[in-house]
Amino acid sequence: MKTSIAILLCISFFQCKAAETDSSHKSVLEIIGNDLSAAGENAEYIYREIGGLSLRSATIVAGIGVGTYLVSTQDESLRSKVIIGHTGASDKFCNTVREYGGTYSIVGVAGTLYIGGLIIGSDEVRTTGRLVAEGLIVSGLTNTFLKFTFGRARPYQNRGNSDFQWFEPGNDFASLPSGHTNAAFTISTVLSDRINRWWATIPLYGLAVATGYSRMYHDMHWASDVFLGAAIGYLSGKAITAAEEERQNPSKTQTMGLRLYPTIGGIGLNYKF
Predict the structure, then answer these.
(1) pTM of the full structure
(2) Where along the chain do its domains lie?
């Protein structure tokens, strides 16, 4: 039951891509080895991007920080409105959509696409499964680090939205950011970019938003937790698809930009054109 959402999301993608088969007839071990190598190249790309802080990237990070703060000013108000609206139908809905950001969906989407791609011989489907997994690793590591660092108390503890127990382990102090929302937006972003059809993008992001709402509905997260989790998931998904595009078509992703980077003597400046 919990895996049904993930499986249904993959069916249309299989139908669209099943005909796109690989004609090179590589062995399964060769394919997996190549995929691991590709994942390593994507990781290297992301590391380079993080190591050289561009003005655009700095602006995005600052914007997310400001946005999270602004949303946090409405945390208490939004919480009171969401948790009083429980009905039988809304309980069932939120219990269902919550699973899109849960372990079953994480394993189900990435695993179904990757293994399915191997079975039907589709590079496109298999690569999408790999990218979903890569995106979830990036967003998951970021999310886990921030949760442990902030140590924010979950709403159900009734300690207020400004209770931070820095570096406090335990689930009760793992509110910021929302992990389910993070995973949901990572999956939706990668799938949306890979399918590249409006009829897929709208329901995918709609499901991700519903997942975030369900976490507030169950009093597990503040609205600002959901906002930050969504931002991290979205950016992680975009970073992975951009890394794959750079790996496959290096010349297409060379854009102009001003980049700052650390050096032994201070800060270096580079303009790419």
Answers:
(1) 0.86
(2) 39-272
Query: Above 50 in pLDDT, residue 32?
Result: yes
Cβ contact 21:120 at 8 Å: yes
pLDDT at 260 over 50: no
Residue 100 to residue 162: CA distance in whole angstroms: 28
Q: What is the pLDDT of residue 17?
A: 54
Contact 212, 62 (CB under 8 A): no
As a whole number of angstroms, the distance between CA 38 and CA 43 comes to 9
pLDDT of residue 106: 92
Q: Say how far apart CA 135 and CA 117 lie, in whole Å.
A: 18
Average pLDDT of 198-214?
A: 97
pLDDT of residue 14: 55
What's the one-letter identity of residue 4?
S
Alpha-carbon torsion (37, 261, 229, 227), positive or negative: negative
Give tens-digit pLDDT for 130-148.
999 999 999 999 999 999 9
Q: Are 165 and 217 in contact (CB under 8 A)?
A: no
Question: How many C-beta atoms surround the C-beta of residue 208 within 10 A?
Answer: 29
The pLDDT score that the predictor gives to residue 271 is 44
Q: Which CATH architecture has domain 39-272?
A: Up-down Bundle (1.20)
Residues 46, 240: Cα–Cα separation, whole Å: 8
Give the Cα separation of 109 and 101 in Å (integer): 11
